[in-house]
Amino acid sequence: KIYCDNAATTALDPEVIDAIIPYLSEDYGNPSSTHWAGRKAKEGVESARRTVAGLLGANPGEIYFTSGATEANNLALTGAIKAYEISHVITSRIEHKAVLQTLRQHEKEGDIEISYVRLDERGNVDTYHLENLLRANPQSLISLMHANNEIGNITNIEAISKLAKRYDAIFHSDTTQTIGKVVFDLSDLEIDFIVGSAHKFHGPKGVGFLYINKKHKIAPQIHGGGQEKGQRGGTENVIGIVGLARALEVACKNHEESQAKVGKLKQYLISKLAISGIEGVCYNGESRSSENSLPNVVSVSFTCLPGGNIVELLDEAGIAVSGGSACSSLGTSHVIAALPCQSEKENVRFSFSKFNTFKEVDQIVETLAGIYGSVRVARQGALQ
Ligand code: PLP
C-alpha cells in the first residue's frame, strides 16, 4: 500500500508516540487540578506552549490550544468579528471551508459583508486588487491562507501583512498547511492571527492552536471553566497538546532535510509523468513550481484519463491520493472551480511526506500509465 495523501493527514512520528506515552498512562491528571497529578499535566501543557511559541518566534501567552485548525480558524474569525465589531472581511474563493463557511455564516446573519480578492490564472492573490479593496474598506479583516491545501500555492503573507498594516486592517492567515513545513518567525512578521493543526505535521488528530498577536483580543466562543486564559473553555487535550509540541519540534529540527526530500519526490513525480507516455497531464495552480508552491503537493488534471474515478482506480491499486482535499468529494473542488483557468477534468492531489520513497513514485506512475493504457485500448476498440 502507498499513502500519498499527506496534505489530508500524516502518520504519527515515532518520536511523537514516545512523547505522549507517559500521558496515556501515568500522567493522567487534569491540568486545572491543584494537586501533584494536576500540576504534572499542567506542566506538560505549559511546556508544550513554550515549545510551540519558541519555535514560531511568539510569546507563550500568544498560543491558545484548540481541537484543530477548523476550530482555531472559527475562533480567530468569529472572535475578532465580535470583539472588534468588524463589518467587512476580505478573503478569497479558494480558502478552506473552515474559513469560507464561517465567514458565510456571519454574512448570512448580517454581521459582515465579504469581498473576494481577485486571483490570477494560477490562483495567486492579485495584490493590486487587494489594495483597492483595502483602500475602499480600511480597517477590514483580511483572511488569506498561507498555502492552499488543494493546489499548493503559497501566498506572500509578508507582502499582505504590510498592506494590512498600511490600511489598519487585521490579518488572519490559515497557515495549517505551512506550519511545520515553512520556517516562521512571528516576531518579524506583522500578522495578527495564524493557526496550526498537529495532524498535518505528524502529530495527533484533534489538536491544534491559534496564535493571537498580543496586541489583540478575541471574543471567546467556548465558555466554561476558564481554561486557555478564558479564551477557550474545556479541559485541555493534554495528550494531543504534548504530541503537537513534539511533532513541531521534530518538524523544525529536521526541516531542511525533510523538505528537501519531499521536494525531490515532487520533482521526481513531475519528471516521471513527463516521460510516462500519458497524454494531457495538466498541473493546477503553481503545482509545478518548487518556489511558489508547497514542496510536497502536486495537483494534476489528467485530461486523457476518465474523469471521476482516477482516485478510485488508484485506491483499488492500493494507492491513497485525493481528488482535491479530503473534504471535497471527487471532482467537486471549490478551489479548482474558482480558478480562472479551471480544468474540466477531475483533479488529483498527490501529497508527500518524509516517509514516502522514490520507488513509490515509480509505482504510482506505472499504475497511472496502466490506467491510461487500458483507456486507449478501450477507445481504439470503440473506434473499430
Ligand atoms: N485549513 C486548511 C488549509 C486545511 O488544509 C485543513 C485541513 O484539512 C484545515 C484548515 C482544517 O484542519 P483540521 O483538520 O485541524 O480541522
Quantity of strands, as a count: 12
CATH hierarchy class name of the largest domain: Alpha Beta
Which topology of the largest domain does CATH recognise?
A: Aspartate Aminotransferase, domain 2
Strand fraction band? Answer: 5-15%
In CATH, the homologous superfamily of the largest domain goes by the name Type I PLP-dependent aspartate aminotransferase-like (Major domain)
Spatial extent as radius of gyration: 22 Å
Low-confidence blocks of residues: none
Helix count, DSSP H or I runs of 4 or more residues: 11
Largest sheet: 7 strands, mixed
Q: Determine the fraction of residues in helical runs and give it as a percent range.
A: 40-55%
Number of domains: 2
Rounded mean pLDDT is 93
The structure class reads alpha/beta
Please describe what this structure looks like:
- By secondary structure, this protein is α/β, with parallel strands linked by helices.
- It folds into two domains: 2-8 and 254-378, Alpha-Beta Complex (Aspartate Aminotransferase, domain 1), CATH 3.90.1150.10; 14-253, Aspartate Aminotransferase, domain 2 (3-Layer(aba) Sandwich).
- The protein has eleven helices and twelve strands.
- The strands form three sheets. It has a seven-stranded mixed sheet, sandwiched between helices.
- Helix 1 runs antiparallel to helix 7.
- The longest helix has 26 residues, at 358-383.
- The chain is globular and about 80 Å long.
- The relative contact order is 0.16.
- Bound molecules: pyridoxal-5'-phosphate.
- Pyridoxal-5'-phosphate binds next to helix 3.
- GO terms for molecular function: cysteine desulfurase activity.
- It is an enzyme of class 2 (transferase).
- Pfam families: Aminotran_5.
